[in-house]
Design goal:
six-stranded mixed β-sheet; 11 helices; globular; binds adenosine-5'-triphosphate; binds magnesium ion
Amino acid sequence: MTVAAEKQPAVDRDVCIEVSNVTLRFGGVTSLADAGLSLRRGEVLAVIGPNGAGKTSLFNCLTGVYRPQEGNVLYRSRGGREVSLLDRKPHQICRLGVARTFQNIRLFAALTAFENVKIGAEIRQRTGPIGAMLGMPWVRRAERVSDEHAHDLLAFVGVQHRSNIIASALAYGEQRRLEIARALATDPEVLLLDEPAAGTNPAEKRDLESLINRINKELGVTVLLIEHDMRLVMSVAMNVVVLNFGRVIASGTPAEVQGDPAVVEAYLGTPADGGDGDAAPR
Ligand SMILES: Nc1ncnc2c1ncn2[C@@H]1O[C@H](COP(=O)(O)OP(=O)(O)OP(=O)(O)O)[C@@H](O)[C@H]1O
Ligand SMILES: [Mg+2]
């Protein structure tokens, strides 16, 4: 290796999403201010921060919903292809291998659990409408495989017994898990979960903890997780990034950030301002 080659900045091949210097403004509101993070392949990285810190805005910048005024979001797929996620539509980003769930559940309320998962799978389907109309054998075969996969995913998240129930009739925790199954049906390399535990009871939170671990370890999916529940964060996340007023104020292991004075202050406020900050890590 030449000296010049040694001096080249090392490209970290293990990083699959690199967010750098992202600033997002809405009129006078700055949702993200020079924010950055590196999501490493295979990890579970949690994004925490008080209400309004910019967590969902960050997800929206990663998934083609918002276009930040400044900064970059790079995605490096398992195959080594490197692309910017900016200026791409949500379905294109999903096809690249980045799937997400939403803070407010977004399911097709009038469709069954099974149909919701099938819709997720269709984004990757290669058979065209003409083959389907003609009932070609390879289309029927692909359909059968896709049906089986949908059933497997329903079982994976634990709602297989509810596959023929319409989504709106499912219990809240089941809807949350169904949304995860639908995201998994797109066969992602990276899964973005926006407060998957919000509104769930303690038993559902424990199930979710094990589900996130299985998604990461059994399916090999890299997870970026927005979560307020610190017990869940501590148990599933390898690393944590803390946002406050759109800025990254700390990052490290869960134990490191929990003891960081800047993080404590962001959540609880300083004694001078009454210490009544909201959404403290629970
Ligand atoms: N479409 C928008 N138009 C105007 N302001 C927006 C928009 N989206 C987000 N914001 C503002 O950006 C800031 C960050 O919001 P965001 O939803 O990203 O926070 P969050 O960290 O996800 O909060 P929470 O924990 O409550 O979900 C807030 O001040 C919010 O009002
Ligand atoms: Mg949010």
